DNA sequence: CTGTTAGCGCTTTCAT
DNA sequence: ATGAAAGCGCTAACAG
């Protein structure tokens, strides 16, 4: 086996036609007589022919292969894994394949990956840039006319389409939810102002309070690491505030879990004694914690949207990105797991 | 820009040499005069040349591209995501790129993916077969001489190298751990005997008990769905057994979490009042639950090993797999997160 | 050490 | 509707 590879010429010979006719069949041209086509397809099957995309791409215009590059910072993070799955769905159904790699938050590695992908002739790239990425890092790619979509993290100064989580919309919805339950002293727990998301998420929180005519009390915005441990710490500090809050919006799900831990340690039941809403960008419903309401971004949906955007650019051949920052999908979910408030936000 | 693509011939012209000399430089041949090489490299930079791997592969022997296909059932499952990351590490450092896709447990989709990957000329494939996959599904691939490594799930009758979790070794270690803590009534919670892993995992549990001279009490092997809810159910039934167990080994981490939920609902503290060990094949240390000891398989390590195995086969050009079922890495971790017992099992 | 000459497997005019 | 011929960008013998 594995003798001299079977090529179009072999199957042409076997079917008693010429290469070009075979090529037409391969491309599904309708201008081949049915009977000839059948004969050719039979030969293809019999000889175990496999199409050589490399050769086809080489000959074809532009030499751009039907592959889409995807670079994420950390595939180990479920958010990105889900994102990749979403991308894969649409990429696959459009007949492309996905080059997926994680750059592990390393800009150098990221550049290597981009280089390697270029050499393989990707038709487009979806990337969640590593921290420290400059817009200029994509200049070479862009000037060679390969469409790029930036996802999750924004990249100031880029001309590429950008797709981000609806941070402000999410915390605003979360806060409104707590207000509707009658809470008035609502804390914001976790994060530090040097994180990009922090400003956006506290922004939505502040907006909702302001809209409800409630003065934002900075004592209730409590900085802490965005981890489970940080959540434990934050709820401790929150409960020590003179005029105690009765509810909290958390920076993310990890913090929210920690807050629940901290509450239980104090014999308080999350949900009943103190309402907690987590911004769920990692774990999603899967590991739903009882008595924890979450606002969630749907990473798969985001992936699907990113891929759709990219394909549109590839097909329209217009490499001008300029697309807007875009919200994706928000779910406010009750402790039971039931979604009580679903909205679609798309720009 | 993006005018007629820059090719070797352009840079040859610019550097005043011939194509072949450029090609030699591209391949890092040492038989080009330093000065010429520099001139060529300068031209490469100036003209923004990008190497066309497709063309190179086409010309080169075998027409096999430097890409490795990876197919998992569900990228959304952290275990597989971690596996993919492990694979990527070694694949990248060997100068290959990874075609990663999820077949979503669908055999048809899986076949499509394999076909697509073949067309792209993958040098090898690492696959976690979808349920219902037949060994014969890989026959075409194998007979074309492309090395295949099967991971995570075993595929009866395949000639390909296979790599699996150390299921029995893991539960055996878990059970031994509980025995060493003085427990004598140890339950096994979760799973049904129609799952492949169930037999292996209960096997290790039974072995450990037997080795300790303890009669296995089938009343303590409790079937339940392998989910969080299943864990809640299982612990309820376990505590209702006449001669109550004092500890449990769980089929997996999801069940273990549910068991902890169930214990807390009964005002029992996991760890202190009832010892729980989870077989942690999904969530790993990241979402460590306080007071839960876990036995874990390191998916990244497994990925690295799978990739190493595959590359060895690719390089040795021997497509005969035949490799053994292999354990990977086990960690028994205390509730604090500290690893108290680490072993390497490699065959 | 460098240039010449042939293709790799496919698509694509252009004839027929 | 089908065939002949040219060539995508690169590498691999050989010559020089």
UniProtKB/TrEMBL annotation, chains A, B:
Name the UniProt record assigns to this protein: LacI family transcriptional regulator
Residue stretches making up the HTH lacI-type domain: 6-60
Xref: Pfam families: LacI, Peripla_BP_3
PROSITE patterns recorded: HTH_LACI_1, HTH_LACI_2
Entry keywords, A to Z: DNA-binding, Repressor, Transcription, Transcription regulation
Domain of life: Bacteria
Alphabetized SMART domains for the sequence: HTH_LACI
InterPro entries xref list: HTH_LacI (IPR000843), LacI/GalR-like_sensor (IPR046335), Lambda_DNA-bd_dom_sf (IPR010982), Peripla_BP_I (IPR028082)
GO molecular function ontology, one term from the record: transcription cis-regulatory region binding
């Amino acid at each position: 086996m594995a003798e001299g590879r079977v090529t179009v010429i072999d199957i042409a010979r076997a079917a008693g036609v010429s290469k070009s006719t075979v090529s037409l069949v391969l491309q599904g041209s309708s201008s081949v007589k049915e009977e000839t086509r059948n004969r050719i397809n039979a030969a293809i099957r019999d000889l175990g022919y496999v199409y050589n995309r490399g050769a086809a791409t080489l000959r074809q215009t532009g030499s751009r292969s039907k592959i889409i590059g995807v670079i994420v910072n950390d595939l180990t993070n479920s958010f990105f894994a889900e994102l990749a799955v979403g991308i894969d769905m649409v990429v696959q159904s459009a007949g492309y394949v996905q080059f997926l790699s994680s750059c592990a938050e390393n800009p150098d590695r990221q550049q290597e990956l981009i280089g390697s992908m270029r050499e393989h002739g990707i038709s487009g790239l979806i990337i969640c840039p590593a921290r420290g990425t400059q817009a200029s890092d994509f200049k070479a790619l862009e000037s060679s006319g390969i469409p790029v979509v930036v996802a999750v993290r924004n990249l100031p100064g880029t001309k590429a389409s950008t797709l981000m989580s609806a941070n402000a919309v999410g915390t605003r919805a979360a806060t409104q939810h707590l207000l509707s339950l009658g809470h008035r002293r609502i804390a914001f727990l976790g994060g530090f102002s040097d994180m990009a998301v922090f400003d956006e998420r506290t922004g939505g929180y502040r907006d909702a309070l302001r809209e409800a005519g409630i003065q934002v009390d900075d004592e209730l915005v409590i900085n802490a690491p965005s981890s489970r441990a940080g959540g434990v710490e934050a709820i401790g500090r929150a409960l020590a505030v003179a005029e105690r809050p009765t509810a909290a919006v958390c920076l993310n799900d990890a913090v929210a879990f920690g807050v629940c831990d901290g509450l239980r340690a104090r014999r308080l039941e999350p949900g009943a004694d103190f309402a907690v809403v987590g911004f769920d960008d990692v774990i999603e419903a899967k590991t739903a914690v009882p008595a924890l309401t979450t606002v969630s971004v749907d990473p798969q949906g985001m992936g699907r949207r990113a891929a759709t955007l990219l394909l549109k650019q590839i097909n329209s051949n217009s490499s001008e990105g300029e697309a807007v920052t875009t919200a994706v999908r928000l779910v406010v979910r009750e402790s039971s797991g039931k979604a009580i408030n679903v909205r679609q936000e798309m720009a």
